Amino acid sequence: MAKRDVPPRWDRKMQQRLARGEAAALGELYDRFASLVHGLAHRVLDDERAADHLTRDVFAHVWEHPDAYDPRQGPLRTWIAALTHRLAVQRLRATETAALARGGSGSVEELETKVRHASVAARADYIVQSMPAPLRAALELAYFQRRDYRQTAADLGVTEDEARRRLRLGLQLLSTAREAVSPGAPGTPPGYGGAA
Fold first, then answer.
1. The pTM is what?
2. What Gene3D superfamilies does its record include (predicted)?
3. Ramachandran region of residue 92, left (φ > 0), alpha (ψ -120 to 50) or beta?
4. Cα 39 versus chain centre, distance
5. Which in 60, 91, 163, 177 has the greatest CB count within 10 A?
6. How far is CA 142 from CA 42, 126, 150, 152, 172, in A?
């Protein structure tokens, strides 16, 4: 297991390449994380076009500020997810606040509720995408195919105890999605690795 103060080699090298201005590095980064960024942006903004724009903004920010990422704070993937989330929440707040100012329906409280719900949903998506494949497979069988732990065990070719363990761990990870949105800073999930 890697120590917290020793970032993964790929993350360090990618940051160094971006800092040198290697356009190929940005392309690799985009290929690796574009679906994550777009998915999180879409989850928060609930708008395909806005998610496309935000995806471009995230990668532009990474390109322009590669030193903003501190490899000692966690994986590059987590930092990019936090950056995406922060920018998406800012955009959602700005868009919704402008709509309220133009006389749209709703209130500031409803806006904050919408932001919190979007944050929890985005965090849950990130958790599911990031969890180990065996846990994700067990949860998908249980949730989407309505399998109990015995059927999940048979489908995965594991013992019933192992199926229960995978389901329990997966659900424990998912339960942190709601906890991650702190009431003092709506929409800022510390579980992404802190401020970006």
1. 0.69
2. 1.10.1740.10, Winged helix-like DNA-binding domain superfamily/Winged helix DNA-binding domain
3. alpha
4. 8
5. 163
6. 25, 19, 10, 7, 14
Q: Where are the alpha helices (DSSP H) in the chain?
A: 9-19, 23-45, 48-64, 76-101, 108-130, 133-144, 149-156, 160-179
Distance (Å, whole) CA 172 – CA 123: 14
For residue 41, give the 3-state DSSP assignment. helix
Hey, what are 31's tokens? 């290929």
Cβ count within 10 A of residue 150? 11
Q: What is the spatial distance between Cα 136 and Cα 130, in angstroms, rounded to a whole number? A: 9
Residue that is written with structure tokens 């690795």 in the block = 193
Contact 152, 163 (CB under 8 A): yes
